[in-house]
Every structure is written in C-alpha cells, then in structure tokens.
Design a protein that fits this description.
Length: 818
C-alpha cells in the first residue's frame, strides 16, 4: 500500500513532519510496530529545474514539418524560446518546462540527465516541454499516453507561470510503500492507516466530513436490486446521480491517484478509486442509460455466460460459482473483481448508478484466482472491508460526483441488503495479558493502549470488555488483542528470559539418516543432485509411474497449465533436466533426485506420499584425453545397474536380484529389469524407451527409480567396516555350457548359495555363442575368487568348494563343464 504522508496528515491532529530524518525515523517505527516498509520515495526522485510555463506563441519551424517554435513565459522578464515536436502544444496553455540545467529522468534508460541548450535544425531551444512519462511517470499511472504529447494543466488547477512543477504535480509528496500482511486489511485504506499511525504516535484521528445534498428525483424510480442468494452480498446498496458531466478530474484528485500508483481515467471513475483508497471500500459506477431494464440482479453466473471486462478480455464465467452483477439480459461485472465494458462510464455518460457492497470474500477470492484477475478491489474484498463504512463511502462518492461532475443526487439509497455487523465484545484481564507477555501491566496501562487504538471498551472490576471494531476485521480472538497490546507497548520493551527446563539434544531419526545417506552415496558414485518441480502435467505425472492408469492428483487452482498435477514419479522430471542440459551443450549427464511422489486415493482424501530415489545417465563414461583411450565409451545398462547395485550394497540391502521385464511402457522392453530384495519389489532400472528419447533428440538415456520406503525396510543391519585381508587370494575358472534360457543372475545366486564363506567374488569374464556350439546353447566363463581373513587358504579346501559348486550347477541347470 502506497501511503501518501501529505494526504495522511489530513486525518491526524498533529501533522507528521516530512523532514527526511523524521520520515526515516517514522519508517523505522512502522517497521518495528506494524508492517514492513518497502521504500520511502517521491515521484520527483532527484529531478529539479521543472517549472510551470505559459505558452505565449506557437510558430512553425522553418526547416521541419513536425516541430514548432514556441515562446513561453515562466514568470521572468524575458520569454524563453523552446522548440518542440509535441502534437498538442497550443497558445495559452500552462505546461511543464524543463529549463536548461534541469535534471530529469530519461524515460527510456531511467538515468538522470542534465538538459543543455540545443540547436534543432538551426533553431535554438532553451529547454524542453515535457510529457509526464519524460519526468519519471510510468505509463501505468500517466493520465494520457505518451504519444498524446506534453502535459497540459487545466484552467482550474491553480498554477501560475514560474511555479515549481514538481510541487504542482504532487511529485514531491513523500510516499511510504508498506508490504502488508494478509490480516492487515485495515491498512489498505488511508483512514485505516491513519488509525494505525495515530496509535503509534498517540494521536487522535479525524475522519473526513461531507454534506450530501439530495434532489427531488427518486432513486427507486430509476433502479432497483434483486439479490438471488443472501450469502453472496450481506450488504448492497445503490445511489443514482443524474445529469453528470464526465471529464478529466481536477489536479488535486489526479495527484492523489498517481501517487497511489493508479492511473486517472475520468472524474467519475477517479472518485470511486479515491473512495477505495480513502475508506478501503471498493465502489463501482454503471452508465444508467446502458442498462437494459431498471432491475439489477446479484446472482451466480449461469451456464455458457461470457463477460467482456474493462481490460477488453472476454471471460468465460463458471456457472454456479462466479458472482455477477447483471441485468435481466446480460452480466454487467464480476462482483468485487472488475467491471464490464458494456456499462462502462465514458464521456457520453449522463446518468450513473453508484454501487457499494460487501461481497462474500471466499467467492471473490476464488473468482480472482480462477480468472487470474487480481484487482485492487478484489484484494480488499478478499481480506475484508470495513462493514460500517460501506454506505458512508457510497454517500461520500455521490457527494463528490455532485461537486466535481455537476450531478444531481437522486433522493434515497436503494438498499438491497444491510446485514448488521457481528459485533464481538472480548473480555480481557491484566493477569492474562501479563501471563502471555511476561509483563507487569496494569488494567489502566492496557486501557491506555486501547485508547491509542481508538477501541471502545468498558472496565468491569478486574476485566476490560473490548468491543472489536468493524474497521479491524482481523480482530476476532483474545490473542489478537494481546498482540495489539504487545506491539503498541513495544516488542523491544518485553522482558527477556532464558528458557528453562530439561534440554534434550536434537538428532535425526533413522529414516532421516538413511535418506541423507542415500544422497551421499549417489554423490560418491558420481551423480549430481537435481531438484525438479513437484507440479507437472497429467501426462508427465504418470510417464514412468508404476501404475500409469491410476487417477492423478490435480490442483483445483493451478498456477499455470503446465503445473496442474502432482507427480507420481521422479524420472519424468530428471528427463526434463537431461533435455535442458543437452540443449545447452552438456552431453554427459549424471543426475539423481530424492523426493516425494503422490499417489491418489479415494475422492476427498489426501494422497499417499512416498519417498523415491531416481537417477539418469547419458553420454559417455569419461571424456577421452592423451592419457586415455581415444575412443569414448557410451554409458550402457550395466553402468546404471552398477550404480544401483553399489547403492543398495552400501545401504545394507541383501539378496538383491534383477528380473527382466516389459511392463514399463516408457522403458526399453529389452533393457529393463525390476529390482527385488528377496520377494520385496524395490523399483526398476533400464534404458528409457527410444521413442521417448528420440522425441527430444537425445542419445540413449538410462535410468532407475527406487521406492525409498521399501529400500529402507529391507535394511536389516548397519553396514560395518571390514578390514582388508592380508592373506593371498586363490581363484578358479569355470567355462559352462548352458541353455540360453538360463540367466546369469540365477547362476550367480546358486554359486553363492552353494559355496562356503571363503568365496569373496564372482566375475563373468566371457560369453560365447556361435556355430561351434549346439543349438540353444551358450558358453559362460566365470572366475571364482577365494580368500580367508585369518589364515592362508589350503588348496584342497578351495578345490573341494569348487567341486561342490560345479556339482550343484550340473544338478540344477544341467551345465557341461568345458
């Protein structure tokens, strides 16, 4: 909220000093007591040398068809010659002149530049006539487009040649920009902010007064209202103003708006925005003559309804959910969010309807999010407006329309709903306050703080009964009142005590330690950690999921179309990371991710969250150089499987086996295996399907995904250090002729099951198939390595063990030992 301190002083008994040091001290106090202060600035910044000038004459430039030569009066004895290309310059205008030596902001670069005498096609120009955009105004707040030309003061703006233009335009007003928390809806208004500053400075607040004059024409004869559902708008009323003249607002009103970050439109629209800034109560103005019929309906949107809003966008309304203000024929506006173009007030408008209401905040919030249409009005309705100020703001706006637009206020307020505010009286004792804050405040001290806040109260014995005001919708429970006492008393003044009681050292749970160990192991194996978005598309959410046909978990109000669904796998996100890296010239990628996936359950039930671990490899194992083989070796299935095997071994998972599978539709059907520990399924490893990688123009990508909960459940004991044996090894080779249906993993499993405890390693060093072997056969050659940690092995013991192994292989798989 941009708070103009000059305007704020209108409501305080003692004006705030606008001295630079005083404002800095005030900002510090606000930050300590109330809300965060983002900045304290002025629109002028470091600009100077800008004055009001009267255009005395305009002559064509002899050597240009678009520039003119003007003589301007700035209150000095001599006129000043200025050459300009402004399309709207004319004699008699009061404009802004940047004199020679002036410092102004370059509207293209934002830099401060110094003006000097210029020679424009042979004619000397002593300064520049400027548009507001050329002296620091953003296009969003400037009342006219830059192409319209220079800024021209109105005849009633009260400026004279030679006046400081920065002061005349309100550009020297000090503006404090505060970062409000969602609960401080009261500070979205100048009056609410005045009460806050008054409480900090211990000053009373004077709210604005006005005298509304009504004419003989009855408002109810021109318009009436029907509310279909009372829950949509607990307060709703209209005022009619006839015979208005729509034109530019006076300068004092425009200054207030652009210092608040709003663009002046016309006097009617500007009055509604002025009331919103003053009271925090959004209002809306309809062109009465553009309404089809006299009846206005407050209802929910119907099926297939559309509305063109004031930003010229067509909105598809959601039936039964969006609140609309409508005639019998068409919707006029999204209630509490934005008006519609069909009833917009413009320079042809003669009769207007002013609307003041309190709309259902939940429905306004949902509509704003649904249409991605967050306006100043919706921000206030969502957080809560001052229930008691709704009709006051409406009457004040009608008074200003009478004053600034020459309108005649029709007699009577057309009230459709006027639900009483649910006033809460909260009891509070000094003992309770001191118990929470650790203070020694008396009831008189507490009452003094409520006087500062302008809260009404009654003291009964040792209890103070506080009436929670409608202007503070955040006040609802006892803790809210105690918080007000604490911040006005001063957080720095609260007593400081050391914590007491038994202390316990913090530590990680077993599951947390295992998850951290998983990340360390992955990094030790050469993979870098990646963190992907949890939110994705429905297709990617199920791309590598175990059960891709299951229902996904979708968000009701997603941030964007590609972040609508929570993920059911990690590999899809890692694939996006691979694509990004490859597209940026990184061909060799080794990534892992540890994170949660979400599995849908029954409707209206939270999904099941599971910890997963996934990794990807693509490219080559190592970049070749002069010390290594010049042939780069691409990664393959066994590199990825080796990562998984090492990880599971270091985690302490035993009896790991791999079963070839074709059930993962986005994985290569010939290079994918499911991973088990005993009979427990842990995950899968393999090559991503070529169709998937070719769609992204990638080299083969290999990946795995493990269920960390399942992995951790299979960790039976911790992994302990085993000393390296100092005794020699002995090895035996065996070449086995086996059926080609027998898998290597089954052979290794039988060897380990049959051999004794001296077998330390099994290596497959040769696979042979060819015409010299019988049909359906292949030759597998293994090296079995034996070692004892305590003594030198005896050859007879190794031979006996090797014979036992070969006998078991012959019996189980009918191998022939070659």
């Amino acid at each position: 909220m941009k708070t103009n301190l000059t305007w704020l002083n209108d409501y305080l008994d003692q004006a705030i000093s606008l001295d630079q040091q005083a404002v800095a001290d005030l900002a510090e106090q606000v930050a300590r007591t109330s809300v965060e202060v983002d900045s304290v600035t002025t629109l002028a910044q470091q600009q100077d040398g800008l004055v009001v000038a009267e255009v005395v004459s305009v002559e064509p430039h002899p050597d240009s068809d678009h520039m003119v030569i003007t003589q301007v009066n700035i209150g000095e004895p001599e006129l000043i010659q200025v050459v300009t290309g402004a399309p709207n310059v004319a004699e008699g205008q009061l404009v802004v002149l940047a004199k020679v030596g002036a410092h102004i902001v370059n509207h293209e670069t934002g830099e401060l530049v110094t003006l000097s005498v210029a020679n424009l096609r042979g004619e000397v120009s002593h300064g520049m006539l400027v548009a507001l955009q050329e002296i620091g105004f953003d296009n969003k707040i400037a009342p006219k487009d830059f192409e319209a030309g220079i800024y021209v003061f109105g005849p009633n703006d009260g400026v004279h040649p030679g006046d400081d233009a920065l002061v005349a335009l309100g550009m020297t007003d000090t503006v404090m920009d505060t970062d409000l928390t969602p609960n401080r809806a009261d500070m979205l208004s100048m009056i609410g902010t005045a009460y806050e500053f008054g409480a900090m400075l211990n000053q009373p607040v004077t709210e604005p007064a006005f005298d509304l004059v009504e004419y003989e024409t009855l408002a109810r004869d021109q318009v009436n209202v029907v509310i279909d559902d009372a829950s949509l708008a607990p307060k709703y009323a209209l005022r009619v103003v006839n015979d208005v003249t729509v034109e530019d607002s006076p300068l004092w009103l425009q200054k207030i708006l652009w210092n608040a970050g709003m663009r002046p439109i016309n006097n009617i629209v500007d009055i509604t925005n002025y009331m919103m800034l003053m009271y925090g109560q959004p209002l809306h103005a309809f062109d009465l003559d553009k309404l089809s019929g006299q009846t206005i309906h407050v209802r929910r949107a119907m099926a297939d309804e559309q509305l063109v809003t004031l930003d010229d966008k067509t909105r598809e309304l959601r039936a039964g959910e969006d609140i609309v203000i409508a005639t019998a024929d068409e919707p006029l506006m999204l209630a509490g969010v934005m008006g519609g173009a069909s009833s917009e007030v413009d320079h042809t408008t003669r009769h207007i309807v002013l609307e003041g209401a309190v709309f259902n905040p939940s429905l306004v919030r949902a509509t704003a999010r649904r249409h991605n249409l967050h306006s100043e009005a919706s921000a206030r309705f969502e957080r809560g407006v001052n229930w008691d100020a709704t009709f006051t703001a409406l009457d004040h706006a009608a008074h200003l329309v009478d004053d600034l637009a020459g309108g005649q206020v029709a007699r009577g307020l057309v009230v459709a709903a006027d639900t009483d505010y649910d006033t809460v009286i909260m009891p509070l004792t000094a003992a309770r306050v001191n118990q929470i804050l650790g203070t020694t405040l008396t009831l008189k001290d507490i009452a003094g703080i409520f006087d500062q806040l302008a809260f009404t109260y009654q003291i009964e014995a040792d209890t103070i009964q506080v009436t929670l005001p409608a202007r503070r919708p955040d006040m609802r429970i006892e803790a809210d009142l105690i918080e007000e006492i604490a911040r006005l008393y001063g957080y720095d003044n609260l007593p400081v005590t050391l914590p007491y009681g038994p202390t316990t050292p913090g530590h990680l749970t077993l599951r947390q330690r295992q998850i951290r160990a998983s990340r360390r192991i992955m990094e030790s194996l050469g993979l870098n950690q990646a963190i992907s978005y949890v939110l994705t598309t429905p297709e990617k959410a199920q791309q590598f999921a175990e059960n891709p046909g299951e229902k996904v978990v979708a968000l009701d109000y997603p941030m964007s179309s590609d972040r609508t669904t929570v993920r059911q796998n990690l590999l899809a996100g890692l694939l996006e990371d691979v694509v990004y890296n490859v597209n940026h010239g990184v061909a060799n990628v080794a990534l892992y991710e540890q994170g949660r996936i979400f599995i849908a359950k029954a409707p209206d039930t939270l999904p099941t969250e599971m910890e997963h671990l996934a990794g990807v490899l693509t490219g080559t194992r190592a970049t070749s150089n002069w010390q290594q083989d010049k042939t780069e070796k691409p990664v393959d299935f066994y590199d990825m499987k080796g990562v998984v095997a090492q990880y599971l071994a270091q985690m302490g998972v035993d009896e790991v086996r791999y079963e070839a599978t074709k059930r993962h539709q986005n994985m290569h059907p010939g290079q994918t295996a499911d991973i088990y520990s005993g009979d427990v399924y842990l995950g899968f490893v393999g090559q991503l399907h070529p169709q998937v990688t070719q769609a992204h123009k990638l080299a083969p990508v290999f990946g795995f995904e493990l269920n960390l909960f399942a992995v951790m459940a299979q960790v039976q004991t911790g992994v302990h250090y085993a000393p390296i044996s100092r005794f020699p090894q002995m090895s035996r080779d065996a070449a086995l002729l086996v059926d080609d249906t027998v898998e290597h993993a089954d052979i290794v499993a039988l060897i380990r099951q049959t051999a004794g405890d001296k077998l330390v390693d099994i290596q497959l060093f040769d696979v042979y198939t060819g015409d010299k072997l019988p049909a359906g056969k292949r030759s597998l050659a293994y090296t079995l390595t034996y070692q004892d940690n305590d003594e030198t092995l005896v050859e007879a013991e190794v031979n006996a063990d090797f014979e036992r192994v070969t006998a078991a292989l012959i019996a189980r798989f009918h191998v022939a030992v070659r």
